[in-house]
Here is the input.
Amino acid sequence: MNNVLSSRVLFGTCSFCRCFLRRRRASPHVTEPRGTTATVSHRDARIDLSRFYASSQTPCSIKLPNNRQMSDKIGGAMNVFDRNMKRKQKQWAASLEDPDKYEYLKNEVGSRVADRVYDIARTFPLALDVGCGRSHIAEHLSKDVVERLFLTDVSESTLKRRRQSDIPVQCILADEEFLPFRENTFDLVMSSLSLHWINDLPGALRQIFHVLKPDGVFIGAMVGGETLYELRCSLQLAEIEREGGFSPHVSPYTAVTDLGNILGQVGFNMLTVDIDDIHIHYPGVFEVMSDLQAMGESNCAWNRKSMLHRDTILATAAIYKEMYGCDDGSVPATFEILFMIGWKPHESQAKPARRGSANISFGDLGKINQSPSMDKPKER
Amino acid sequence: MSGANVWTRSRERMKRLPELFAQCGPEATAYGKCVTATTSSKEELRKDLCIREFEALKTCILSAAKKTVK
Here is the structure.
């Protein structure tokens, strides 16, 4: 990571322009640069460089300060994924002749998100779909539930080749981590299968919280937990046996418990998080990997290995089939989809009862069977 | 990347791999069993622990490829 840092400092103008653009979007908090200590993370380098220029006019050949305090302010966000690469992968996936053939998972999850939207008995005048891909949710919604819809994605080709729907739609090219909308704009924000490529998940959820109106709802679906554990384990064993060590090929996922915590920290109310396990059967590991690639879900983590040897692929196929194969010769791939619903606080929402307002004691709980007319204790 | 280059050629070769793999069922199972045995036994998986089974699998794949070469 150090050599990346030095290259950004050396090739002067280019890195300055790029960082200046980023600075306009991040909240400007100009402080004095401190002395360097240990290595600077990649993300810190980008944002630090912008603040450095904001505070002084010195040329960029000066050693970059490591500003630990600033990284705490941002929330210690990680830089795991190469967003530029992800955009390129999505452009490529959208440019295939028949992208519909490979997007069965996204269609299914999109329909389940739309189900959850229908569960809420409201009409949403303005809705936003973050990281919409080829728009898999909108086709299941109707005009009496969502009146106007905004679609955002990082990749232009996916927006151009989106699926048609009845709802009037507006497409905006935007990154999920930098939403270009004003506060309190949307009644409904949806997101289906794109949050797992975000570097700073709390930050992105904070932005979603920001653009929601009070009493607005966020319904999201992301891949998490034990997704593709079969692929991960087979690749790991094959690489150890063939090459002597292993490197991560499947990106890291959020656990259910962490998701609930993050949503709570951001400020969402009345959270609902549930898991859906989807098992898809493939003829072999080659089909698993090529389908994932065609969906635009190839790995784009910075620490990914750029090569997968033929021997390792062969070994993975054999191990996958032996460890997880089914009787009919197919192999399963698990997708654990985490669905989350969160509301922006509003006075009309139910709150926990006031302390001391109980009129029934927990001690009477044992008597519930005896007198069915007794109410449940109201105190939480 | 468009046109005929090393990536398109190797991609074509990779596309044949599933059908060749299907013809080498027993060798693949033997190799798979050798590796998965280490997950339950005390022996740690190291490099080339199952090299004999893997070489058998690889020769099977190569001979299948030679047989079906266009």
User: Anything to note?
Assistant: Chain A is about 35% helix and 15% strand. Residues 104-119 of chain A form the longest helix (16 residues). Residues 6 and 64 of chain A are 9 Å apart (CA to CA).
